[in-house]
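Researcher: Please translate sequence to structure tokens.
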Amino acid sequence: MAAPVNSVGKPSAERPPFNSTSFQKKTRSKLISIPGTRPSVQNGQLLVSTGVTSLDYLLGGGLAVGTVLLIEEDRFDSYSRMILKYFLAEGVVCRHELFVASAQDNPDDILQELPAPILDDVAIHKPVEQPRLSCEPQDNLDAMKIAWRYQNLPKVQSALASSSRFGHYYDVSKTMEPEIRQAAKCHRFYLPEHPTQSSTTNSRMIESYSALLKSLQEVIHREGFDLSTPMSMSRNILRVGLHSLGSALWNDDLSCHDDPMHSHALTTFLYGLRALLRSSLSVAVVTVPSHLIQDRALMGNITRLCDNAIALESFKGSERETNPLYKDYHGLLHVRQVPYLNCLASQLPDHKDLAFKLKRKQFSIERLHLPPDLSETVSRVSRGELAGAAAVASACGSGTSGNKHLDF
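Model: Translation complete:
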């Protein structure tokens, strides 16, 4: 870029250094380097993995530090509990500290059920198909199933995966070895071990949530996760797992009555939790039995107080469990809310019809694609209908064939 005209001929010492050129060397901002984290390519936010690679893809690359992920539990709390264990297992492998709170199961029992990591850094790829000759009967059968104009179209990719790998893989058929699990530092909060008294005051937060929030705040300040503390040589991430908040086991009547007495207890707790996480190197996953909450407006307030929100709808015990159309899946996944962090608009998932399934060793989330009507049941019905239609047509044709012949 040319220099200004009025600066020509003056000594170089009189020129301001910032007018010498308009190009400046861009320096990278100093980001916090913590194992098991990476900056987001969209907004520069520090991300951690949830332990489920497909869920990381839906959340924009991972779960942002300082945010809350809300999981609306399925009816039997099977898959929501599994995602929580994935989240905690990823923290153990990355040497992050854990904070596990529960009112039903002892946190030690939850930690003993963590899936075993696959530490050989080998991703679970699909088996490579062997090339086949074009004259095989299978190729001819596939060609007969679909119309010719669809044969050259690319196959739909159901799996949700990113080009760059983030996180680890786990085997749900095995549990994590005690040596690996005990290497991580874990803070526990078991509600029966913290006796609370029913409050008679007009406080919006019940004693169980107040004790939980106070315990978490003490851990954040004592262990140095607060951002207000001086920057030390090594920083770490605190992963917070809160199981089944809003249930009656937390002394909350939110899921017991249509008009609960403590209707604002959980929302007040989430408001304080999010404020606490915003000023610390912490990230939380909260599960809530939303199917037991009758007030949908209140459930909407709970969702809006969290940064990310997903809902799991299991097929277990429903008509879809025996429906052949959903035989490849175990439930549906609904994205309720995505965060707005350092941007005006968040990145929405490119596909809204999502389903999850539990394989023999892995839990995965995929795009929902219903199969075409080529099953045996449909084929039998079609054959029966065609046979009946042909019989009717032949009967009608036999009575009118003479007239047609005469007219011809």
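Researcher: Any highlights?
Model: The first strand starts at residue 37 and ends at 39.
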